[in-house]
Amino acid sequence: MSDLETRINHWFEHISEMDPSNVEARRDVELVITKLDDGQVRVAEIAVGGEVIVHEWVKRAILLLFRLRGLRKIEVGPFEYLDKLDLKTDYERRGVRVVPGASARRGSYLSPGVILMPSYVNIGAWVGGGTMVDTWATVGSCAQIGSNVHLAGGVGIGGVLEPANAVPVVIEDDAFIGSRCMVVEGARVGKGSILGAGTILNPSIPVIDAETGEEVSRGYVPDYCVAVSATRRREYPGGEFFLPCVLIIKRMDEGERHNKVALNNILRDHGVAT
Ligand SMILES: CC(C)(COP(=O)(O)OP(=O)(O)OC[C@H]1O[C@@H](n2cnc3c(N)ncnc32)[C@H](O)[C@@H]1OP(=O)(O)O)[C@@H](O)C(=O)NCCC(=O)NCCS
């Protein structure tokens, strides 16, 4: 455990006493946010065996930040905001293209080659290179998004801060998340998989293989699957109802790209030096 980690854990034990006058705690917490912003630390990562490792102390630093910062006015031309946290800056150096209307908070990490259409990326999130965060998509706090992912228009990727969740959402490399999907509460989409437009995925939602009829997981779409929103029959004392499920309608080969969701490199090559 690093000294910084030990100190953050210590401050977190005293979170109710924390306020902006605590200079020492602020210094430690701001250092973690700088490291998050530069990608030197992450809230979560995928270990070699595929397991998601959550670095709780980093999450704690983000929570502490809200106690240690006061509100201040932020003005942008005719727009006015009132917030505690800073926005991310220095996109040219980072090799990230940001379309007007997009905002990312400082303490999120955007890899070189990311494109932000008018969208929102919250603190603690990590986004891999070549990923497109399309219009009105939101990447919640601490969510972990891989490389060459497309989060299509209006996608909602849940965060871990509010309501408090233990594990962030993970979208692995090369995945495609269709328009208006909602992926929340530590749900996970595997490498190269496609979630059809309008799918809701959380750890309570069964993921069913259409070939076998078997439930393969809850809240996790394995690698290289095409999965869409479907319903399953449920009997309750009040009658028969149809609850949502996620149905795997196709399995692709490893490395395969579905022709309907192929990336358009013309949109990605934005010529910002990386
Ligand atoms: C999932 C998707 C890629 C289709 O994949 P596909 O392998 O070509 O599947 P098909 O079109 O052959 O459809 C297979 C079945 O799934 C159904 N289906 C397709 N997409 C669906 C969706 N999003 N939700 C529910 N069912 C869907 C089809 O009706 C079809 O049913 P059928 O076999 O009874 O005819 C596509 O429908 C989709 O959702 N694309 C995302 C579009 C999008 O979000 N674009 C981004 C814009 S920013």
Topology:
Elements: H1 3-13, H2 23-37, E1 44-46, E2 52-54, H3 56-68, E3 72-76, E4 79-83, H4 91-94, E5 97-98, E6 103-104, E7 109-110, E8 115-116, E9 120-121, E10 126-127, E11 132-133, E12 138-139, E13 144-145, E14 150-151, E15 156-157, E16 170-171, E17 176-177, E18 182-183, E19 188-189, E20 194-195, E21 200-201, E22 206-209, E23 215-218, E24 220-221, E25 225-236, E26 239-251, H5 265-268
Parallel strand pairs: 5-8, 6-9, 7-10, 8-11, 9-12, 10-13, 11-14, 12-15, 13-16, 14-17, 15-18, 16-19, 17-20, 18-21, 19-24, 20-25, 22-26
Antiparallel strand pairs: 1-2, 3-4, 22-23, 25-26
The structure holds coenzyme A (COA).
Task: Give me some keywords for this one.
Tetrahydrodipicolinate-N-succinyltransferase, Chain A, domain 1, ten-stranded mixed β-sheet, binds coenzyme A, 274 residues, 2 domains, 5 helices, six-stranded parallel β-sheet, alpha/beta, 31% strand
Explain the overall architecture.
This protein has two domains: 3-71, Tetrahydrodipicolinate-N-succinyltransferase, Chain A, domain 1 (Orthogonal Bundle), CATH 1.10.166.10; 85-253, UDP N-Acetylglucosamine Acyltransferase, domain 1 (3 Solenoid), CATH 2.160.10. It is globular, with a radius of gyration of 20 Å. It is of the alpha/beta class. The strands form five sheets. Strands 5-8-11-14-17-20-25-26-22-23 form a ten-stranded mixed β-sheet, with no helix packed on it. Strands 6-9-12-15-18-21 form a six-stranded parallel β-sheet, with no helix packed on it. A six-stranded parallel β-sheet has the order 7-10-13-16-19-24, with no helix packed on it. The protein has five helices and 26 strands. The mean pLDDT is 94. Strand 3 (72-76) and strand 4 form a beta hairpin. The structure holds coenzyme A (COA). Residues 134, 152-153, 178-179, 194, 196-198, 226, 228-229, 249-250, 258, 260-261 line the site of coenzyme A (COA).
